[in-house]
Design brief:
Blueprint (H helix, E strand, L loop, with lengths): L30 E3 L2 E3 L3 E7 L6 H14 L3 E3 L17 H14 L3 E4 L6 H7 L2 E4 L7 H9 L4 E4 L6 H13 L5 E5 L17 H8 L4 E3 L1 H5 L5 H10 L4 E5 L17 H17 L3 E2 L3 H4 L1
Parallel strand pairs: 3-4, 3-10, 3-11, 4-5, 5-6, 6-7, 7-8, 8-9, 9-10
Antiparallel strand pairs: 1-2
Amino acid sequence: METHKGDNPNKYGSSAPNLVNRQTNAKDTVINVNGIEIGGEEIVIIAGPCAVENMEQILETARAVYSGGANILRGGAYKPRTSPYSFQGLGEEGLRYLSQARKETGLPVVTEVMDTREMELVCKYADIIQIGSRSMHNFPLLKEAGKCRKPVLFKRGLMATIDEYLHAAEYILSEGNREIILCERGIRTFETSTRNTLDLSAVPVLKRQTHLPVIVDPSHGTGHSWLVPAMAKAAIAAGADGIMVEVHNKPLEALSDGQQSLYPEEFVQLVKDLDKISQAMGRRLFLHKSLLA
């Protein structure tokens, strides 16, 4: 690798933990989820509502994102909310609805787990388990995720440095689970015009420092649906292996994060734009067979 004066190629990884470090594993980790490869040449799109609200809502949204080009369905059955009076999710009922949506569309499901007591149940229903930003430092939960032999979508904490983030990921790796998808979803700064500050510089830093796939969540990263397309395209240009966006069949009626959710028709246009960006980056979108036909 070509270096320049003062540029130590190991300086960003010198303090990184062992298993996550690219010096330990130089080859990129590619995670296969029901035939969908995350971390390979193709860009993966995860889409769906912030929260599963009822059967009709998740099925309608799942059909829309499937036909629009999504590879994986997201939806929260357990929701960490700032206020205890906000909608907290449907729990196992929501997991059953996600399972039905997977059965109908064929889309693998990613959903969040918040508590070690729920890990076994969520693993039963999910194809990928999500550890949210608020749980990044919940070390008992991370250890349980390491024991649950399912891929883990691991979000960066609200105020975590990259070094802290990677040390937290090491808790999962150290328990034997090597299938971790890192997710940049914005960090808290003094800026108030967006929900969080989406740190796109984290993408090339993480790709340089680790062997794990990296995706970006521009929905939580910005908090505004009109900003999502621009930041999603920028994420792919920065080298992300995929994006995770919130899509709702009726955003104005959403029980959680409607203001940052795309309408299905907006999602369709975003996928078309991402296809162009991906090709410009020498990559391509992962398209399911129905769209290739």
